[in-house]
Amino acid sequence: MSEPTFKQRTRYWFDNTMSKGTKALIGWLTVITLALTAMGALFLLFVGKGDGVGGTLWTSFIHILDAGTITGAEDGVGYGYMVIMFATTIGGLVILSSLVGVLTTGLDAKLEDLRKGRSLVVEKDHTVILGWSDQVFIVISELVEANASEKRACIAILADRDKVEMEDEIRAKIPDLKSTHIVCRTGDPADLDDIGIVNPGQAKSVILLTSAEDDPDAQLVRSLLAVTQGRGGLKCHVVGAVEDGRNLPAARLAGGRAAHVVDANDLMARLMVQTCRQSGLSVVYTDLLDFGGDEIYMVEEPGLFGRPLSQAMHSYRTSSFIGVLTKDGRCIINPPSSAALQPGDKLILIAADDSAIVLDGSRPVIDESAIVARAEAGSRPERTLILGWNAKTRMVLEQLDQYVAPGSITDVVSDHPDAAEAIRKIGPTMRVQGLNFKEDDPTDRRLLESLNPGSYDHIIALCADDVAPQMADSKTLVTLLHLRDMAQRAGQKFKVVSEMADDRNRSLAQVTQADDFIVSDKIISLLLTQTAENPHLSQVFGQLFSPEGSEIYLKPAEHYVRTGVPVNFYTVVESARRRGEAAMGYRVAAQAQQAPDYGVRLNPDKGTQFMLQPGDKIVVLAED
Fold first, then answer.
1. Which of 119, 365, 438, 520 has the greatest count of CB atoms below 10 A from its CB?
2. Looking at residue 479, which CATH number applies to its domain?
């Protein structure tokens, strides 16, 4: 093949220059303008109409920029002058028209780039959210509350969605962002280069949301690998949740030490079992997990170093002691009150805000005459009815087997296609409880009546996962309404805990008067947000949800203090301490159906007197 000609080389160079975009085009227009100005001035000097070099250049230049200048020529300038200026003005019109077109095209391209959301997020100490689902609105709402005291906080979101659509949805769902600034970017949350757009290297935390694709855990593992192995290393912590517990080891391996990954289904199964046995427990957990009420804080208190933890229990009037974070990073929930607080240890407290944690030097007022020492009744076999089936049911049964007494029975009723085979496999693994299964529709009134629900200690209504979430909630509501009507007709009270797929249906479900409603996505979203703000909380909630060690219980108030007489919470805390427990609140039975707190008073002012009645509960941390 022959060598390229000079013309071909020149054309190639020109094409490459023009392909560089708006800047190159403006550069060429500038060169043409200067050349045309010089040519016009040269011709004027040639015909003898110039006014010096500078004046002639200026005359030529203003004819190029302003087409109206041609009408302002002086009399007697001659046809040569007019022809030259006419040609110069026509050239100027072409140049200005081209400039307007180039600028318009360049501006449109820039706006399109901005709309695509591909520019770098230049923020520091911001929160990064990777992925998009219904959980994002809960996470953003909680982060807005958490950042309310900051002058300017930022949340950067990277998802495979249109930037403008994400911003519009956020504005529609969360109209008041307070002091928080939201930045949306479009990209693959599992792509290393795309993740770099939201600047995770300078973020304070990264939250990975479960995607809506067929295998969300695979997407989570890819995102963990991408964000933790990114350029420059990652200094912040990463939080996420897997849906299938079998993928948890792989996710934790992918995330490394910087990641805090939880098993969403296992966590919800644990909460569901604890809640079905204790009405009101989900309200306590929701209060601890959201940023709207009381939260868990960790504070260092040098004034209590070397002193027994029993003193820490009574040293805060508006905060409740629940544990210790040791200097080596271990969380101990409900430690022995006789143990001493060591230098470097931090107290784990429940408080409305970190500003409310104030060491109270006054002596607590404890009414010894109001303290009651009543032993707990021995455990007995329990009967549990599970209506419905989903991916968490197996874990619910396994967790129940760790809580109930020997001889307990659990009956499962569902028309889910996977239920019968799963029960056949699970049955032989149960250690203390027996399993019975009936394949039928739990929304059938005649079936529910034949089960005699009043004979069960606990009833769990699960949300099906083989239909759409709204349909699943509708079926659950039908079951709950039947149970409510049956209870009213029989003059009984069924202890029912229900799972909701969508938090918006929770208010509808209140009319069924079930004891508790658990919304899985909401609880997991709240947990991830709390862990993103304080990674040590993953240990705290991990212990609280575990059947080993201390957990949260709602126990009869009459086992702690005399009912019907005024007491303060200092007295309740002291009564619980003597039983090896840590009191953190109480529940008024008469307000159990009243939203939003359903009678739960978490972390009350210890100095304020109140009166407990039979049927009220004390919220405590205890081993059983």
1. 520
2. 3.40.50.720
